[in-house]
Amino acid sequence: MALLAKIDDKETIKNVKDFFNNDFERIQRLSKSSINISSPIIDGMPKVQPVNNVNENKYIKAANFRLAFNAVIDAVNDCSDTGRVIIIKRLIQHKPQWQVAQEVQYQSSRYYDYYNDACLEFADNLEYRTAILGDDDLLLDLHAYQH
After folding, report:
1. How far apart are CA 9 and CA 125, in angstroms?
2. What's this model's pTM, rounded to 2 decimal places?
């Protein structure tokens, strides 16, 4: 794949919208989940230790959701001022498009251009923010690529 593969803008914009409609709130909820820690029960009988630590896996999973959520927030904050307002008001707060267009002071025809640009900008930012985490499991790439 070339350094900058051809992106399908229309599908990428759809992916961003789907991400905020289906995944973002779940990532947000899971990033705030707490892990209950209980003391080991000692009954004097020898036991075989499990191969993997269940609590450790829970900590890692919770930490990964926090990292992913923080990466999303950073990606939003990395957007241009107009893009950030559009992403927050339209895709996170689910305000009607006409209301967001009024807030950014654009006519509806021009607003859609800015909306599309904001989605594409967010997709780029999110890919970067999750890539620098250094864990392929955390990479969130919302781009749709042309074949």
Report:
1. 15
2. 0.82
